[in-house]
Specification:
single chain; eight-stranded mixed sheet; alpha+beta
Length: 936
């Protein structure tokens, strides 16, 4: 096919060669000519055409950003701030070795050891980054991106990547547009072009031809990456993948750098402060040891080694691994984390604003009752299988016919022996299609007799949906919606073939019936119609002076797992607020079933009442401790409530599935979108996607989010406590006048290599403690290095320091050798520094067991329940044994072999941090029990 060079879409860089067969751009063609130009029809492409188009044009995907070469990824690990510090320190140490006279082999060993630390951390960082990329790709594939198309006249849901030019796309509010398309049918269709133009206002679309102009100004086109915010329509694809307008912009923005999360920034800032403290301590060591008579180069190298050993070089990698583990665990619990920020915020969540349908319930609607003329007609059968019947269906056949015509959903029969009936589209509409089939109606035949002319889609303000169909010489409007809103538009009634004016008595009977159905936990819809003269009525005309046909009550049973999740959130101090568009009685009934409402007098607030409140009144309402349900509310109300909670300092998680929920999802601390029933727009705006739409997955994610934050603190305590054990003996020896150091810089680096990073990584993978959901949420102002964390570091590090310092001076003193007679070759000194190093390693092994839990006894958690931690600790002990016994390593570290008695003493002292921390935890548990039992 040929195309014109002057085509504005071609000039925009987004046109494929399949756009048209003439020199006239598709934007300027009439609808009939668009089908001809794109070699398609109103029935869409055939299956064969779609396959050929996919082979010809390729998948509808944006070009993936080029991955950095492996060698570049590995090289980037050596440009980190701490890696640079260590490399510089190693270079200075090598230089010092070259300048020394005579040269000290220990200086060379220290330089090599520093480089060893750099290489180890680079290897861990590279492995983590590579694994994180693979994990991100796998998680992204867990949320399939699909779209609805017509192929051969049949409405299908296909992966967006399989769209090809000529496909007929079905557009509805909440959809993300998956390709550049020419609109051929529009019913109040409006899109948000903000991703392309930066303007967030809804822009109406038309099917009419437009004059030549820039591509993005064509009002009869919709573009990839934009959102349908209102109405419905159909459009023909003319460009896919990189040939779209969005693809052109994407290529320009693909290289934008990622921003670090607040937690990463906090850890980086903290690590820099610690590095500054290490520099200060190194300077102090230099100043203190210089007067001892050692050469300045020797003292400088020692001080440099101490400084390097105290730098938390493994902290960034350990943090990233812990967060990545948390994300993977949440994905296994059906919670897909899109932003690491969500992992941080989940641990401090105080309020969850949750939808009802699909989140607390199963989102598998089943009509159980149909009401008309004072009579209730029960419906048998469950789910979407059309098996069952409507009791005495004759009087309600017209009601069900109108309700079925006013639907866009489609029932999909089972495929294969294990398949089941499912709904393509809205589940409420699916339930209406099923009950119509149970009543013996053939909706395909009904639609053929009364083809649809136009549609006025549902929106959260009107709470109605209307379709207009041909009926004889005129038209008929079929309307369904919320009972209160629809009844207000009714003037007549038709029950059991009797038609007349809607009297006050009739209206009261309908309201009472609606309330009775809602009080049973049923979702209630009213159904009405109107006969019209003209073929294209205005919306106000089609939705006024209606004839009420009756009510439909449908059951959406609560999810069985939600009750336990609600109870867990209550214990965790998390407030749950139900935010639903349903009837207050329906919302309260479901909330009671799952345990959100337990008191006899919950506060139930409707959207109308919220509109009448100013901000002060709303703040006062939210401050009340009563159980709260917000019913008949719109997404705008949800946004206002989220903002009000945040004004009170709450950390808010909010669920949403519609396009209009996007502002609230973005504004909330944790926006939670539905992965099954949610719109593309909602999923894009959220920071977390529920792959199963269940509230229980939110509770599970909160639990795991708390565990991630706890684990970060655990390895902080672990990493920094042993620094105290290394530093105090050096200070004590200096001020006691001992001429040598109780532990050398190369020994400290060996501890970093053997006993720091691997156990810290294992602590980052620690599962949540059993009582993690029995604690109140942490304050969002609480810092990682809180008073409790610093106190625990000093507590455990102080015990280690006292033990190894006492052990060193006991062994030196028991020899009877004067301090001034000691040299580095004195056997007693070699044994003493070996015992100091071994004492720190063993105490760190038991320290790792201690910090596994904050309050629970490690014996109850299970000493063997984290095998990775035991293996990491065992590696550190084995390395220490090798340093003690192997002659080559003895020469490097100036160590001596220890006998069984020495190891027994070291093991006994090493257990003291564990024993002391177990006593501390027992005291905390007793205090918590006393507080729980105290009268309030």
């Amino acid at each position: 096919m040929m195309h014109s060079r002057t085509d504005p879409l071609v000039q925009g860089g987004a046109q494929s060669e399949a756009v048209h067969a003439t020199s006239v751009p598709v934007t300027q063609l009439a609808v009939g000519d668009v089908f001809t130009a794109l070699d398609t029809s109103r029935r869409g492409l055939s299956a064969a055409q779609a396959r050929a188009g996919l082979e010809s044009h390729g998948a509808n995907e944006l070009p993936r950003p080029r991955r950095r070469a492996v060698w570049r990824q590995l090289g980037a690990q050596f440009t980190d701030l701490f890696a640079v510090v260590l490399i510089v320190a190693s270079g200075i140490t090598f230089l010092a070795y070259g300048l020394e006279e005579p040269r000290d082999i220990g200086t060379l060993q220290l330089a090599v050891a520093i480089l060893g630390v750099v290489v180890l951390n680079a290897a861990i960082g590279f492995a983590q980054e590579y694994s994180a990329e693979r994990t991100a790709q796998a998680l992204a594939a867990m949320v399939p991106h699909t779209c609805r198309v017509l192929r051969g006249g049949e409405r299908l849901e296909v992966p967006a990547r399989e769209l090809v030019p000529g496909d007929m796309v079905v557009l509805e509010a909440g959809d993300a547009v998956s390709a550049d398309c020419r609109v051929v049918e529009a019913h109040e269709l409006a899109v948000n072009n903000a991703p392309l133009t930066g303007e967030s206002n809804a822009v109406g679309r038309t099917a009419d031809p437009v004059a030549a102009g820039p591509p993005l100004e064509a009002r009869n086109c919709v573009f990839m990456g934009t959102e349908v915010v209102a109405g419905s329509g159909r459009a023909v694809v003319f460009a896919t993948g990189a040939r779209t307008e969005f693809g052109r912009i994407y290529r320009l923005a693909a290289a934008a750098p990622r921003q670090k999360t607040p937690l990463q920034l906090q850890v980086a800032s903290m690590a820099r402060r610690v590095a500054g403290a290490a520099l200060a301590i190194g300077a102090l060591m230099f100043a203190v040891r210089l007067p001892t008579g050692e050469s300045p180069v020797t003292v400088f190298v020692f001080a440099l080694g101490v400084m390097v050993a105290l730098v938390p070089e493994g902290l960034p990698a350990t943090l990233s691994v812990s967060l990545a583990i948390g994300v993977r665990r949440m994905a296994r619990r059906h919670a897909l984390i899109k932003q690491l920020l969500a992992v941080e915020a989940l641990g401090s969540t105080t309020v969850v604003c949750t939808d009802k349908t699909g989140t607390l319930t199963q989102a598998e609607m089943t009509v159980t009752q149909v009401w008309a003329g004072g009579a209730a007609h029960s419906v048998s059968g469950v789910g979407y299988a059309p098996g069952g019947e409507v009791a005495d269906a004759g009087p309600v056949r017209e009601l069900l016919r109108v309700a079925g015509l006013c639907c866009n959903a489609r029932l999909v029969p089972p495929v294969g022996p294990r398949g089941h009936w499912r709904v393509l589209g809205d589940t409420t509409e699916g339930a209406l299609l099923v009950v119509a089939a149970k009543a013996g109606l053939d909706l395909d035949a009904e639609e053929a007799q009364a083809p649809r002319v136009t549609e006025f889609p549902f929106d959260s303000d009107r709470k109605l949906m209307t379709t207009v169909h041909k009926s004889g010489v005129g038209c008929q409007a079929c309307v369904k919606g919320a009972p209160v809103e629809l009844l207000a538009r009714c003037t007549d009634v038709e029950w059991a073939g009797r038609r007349g004016s809607l009297t006050g008595e009739d209206r009261a009977a309908a309201v009472a019936a609606s309330d009775a159905l809602a009080s049973q936990g049923l979702r209630v819809l009213a159904v009405a119609r109107r006969e019209l003269d003209g073929p294209r009525p205005a919306q106000d005309e089609a939705e006024s002076a209606l004839t009420l046909l009756g009510l439909v009550g449908m059951l959406d049973p609560p999810r069985p797992e939600v009750s336990d999740a609600v109870a867990a959130c209550r214990r965790a101090g998390i407030r749950i607020v139900v935010v639903t568009g349903d009837h207050p009685l329906t919302g309260e009934a479901v909330a009671r079933r799952v345990g959100i409402v337990r008191r006899p007098d919950p506060i139930v607030v409707t959207g109308a009442r919220l509109d009448a409140m100013d901000d002060e009144e709303l703040d006062a309402l939210l401050a009340e401790p009563s159980e709260l349900l917000l019913c008949r509310v719109s997404p705008e109300h949800k946004m206002r409530v989220v903002t009000a909670f945040q004004r009170r300092g709450e950390v808010v998680a909010v669920t949403g599935d519609g396009a209009n929920d996007a502002p609230a999802l973005k504004h909330a601390d944790i926006g939670v979108a539905m992965g099954v029933s949610g719109t593309d727009v909602a999923r894009e705006a959220a920071s977390m996607v529920l792959l199963d739409d269940s509230f229980a997955s939110i509770a599970a994610a909160v639990r795991l989010g708390r565990a991630v934050y706890q684990n970060i603190r655990k390895f902080l305590v672990y990493l920094f406590s042993h620094n105290i054990g290394e530093l105090v003996p050096i200070l004590a020896a200096t001020f006691a006048g001992f001429p040598l150091v109780p532990i050398s810089a190369v020994q400290i680096l060996a501890i970093d290599l053997g006993s720091d990073v691997l156990p810290a990584l294992a602590l980052g993978a620690e599962p949540p403690e059993p009582d993690v959901m029995d604690r109140l949420p942490r304050s969002r102002q609480e810092r990682l290095f809180s008073a409790a964390v610093v106190g625990r570091i000093l507590f455990l590090g102080g015990i280690q320091a006292i033990c190894v310092t006492a052990l060193f001076f006991w062994h030196i003193g028991s020899s009877g050798i004067p301090y001034d007679d000691f040299t580095e070759d004195t056997l007693v000194y070699q044994e003493a520094i070996t015992m100091v190093q071994a004492g720190i390693v063993l105490s760190q092994f038991f320290n790792a067991l201690a910090v596994r839990t904050d309050r629970q006894s490690v014996l109850k958690a299970g000493l063997l329940s984290n095998p990775a931690l035991l293996a990491a600790g065992g590696f550190g002990v084995a390395l220490m044994a090798a340093i003690s016994y192997l002659p080559p390593l003895q020469a490097v570290f100036n160590t001596a072999p220890l006998d069984a008695a020495d190891w027994a003493v070291l093991a006994g002292l090493g257990t003291l941090p564990l024993i002391a921390d177990e006593a501390r935890k027992a005291w905390l548990r007793r205090r918590a029990e006393r507080r729980k039992g105290a009268p309030r």
